[in-house]
Design goal:
- The chain is an alpha/beta fold.
- It has a single domain (3-160, 203-212), classed as Rossmann fold (3-Layer(aba) Sandwich).
- Helices cover 38% and strands 20% of the residues.
Amino acid sequence: MHLGVLAGLQSEARWLSPIVERRSVALSAARQAIAATASARLIAEGATHLLSFGLAGGLDPALPPGTLLLPDVLVLPDGSEQGIDAGWHAALLDRLRDFHPVVGRHLGADLPVADAGEKAALFARTKALAVDMESHILMQAAAGRPFAILRVVCDAAEDVLPPAALAGIKPDGSTDVPGILASILRHPGQIPALGRLARAAKAADRVLKACGARPLLPG
């Protein structure tokens, strides 16, 4: 088996241990076209199992930052639904049970979901626990290959993503420090929100790091 992993950022992918199992890792940099190309590359490199891995934006107000999510249903942007590979999902639940993973619906979005009001509306409409911008792209590319999602809540449902969080990503998935600083200069009022997001990301990173050190393939 060969695990193909799609994450959004280098800061997420760094937690995947290169020695645990045969893996290929690709990044979307929060861009749909890059996500599609990256997904195709994973398959071309021989991935037999495809995993969406990284952080997610919370939609359920009950889930704090650092909550591990192992969704069993993916809601696509058009409202249709796709089930996760049942056997692999069961294996992940067993292997990561000490992190108390939460199972439920997960939403794939084509655009960032940054506003608390938009998060509330999406939760009411889809009942999805969280959202990311990679999972549905990878699922569509999977074309019948086993597919699973491992995500950790970063920004909570009530959190508004500050502009710098969206401006601070380079096309290679690395952090655009000049872009962040320029955004702060334009909108200095976002500094408290950036501080809250940094604390939430630290909590989420601890869980993501621990999960990335485990074997993630079934069997």
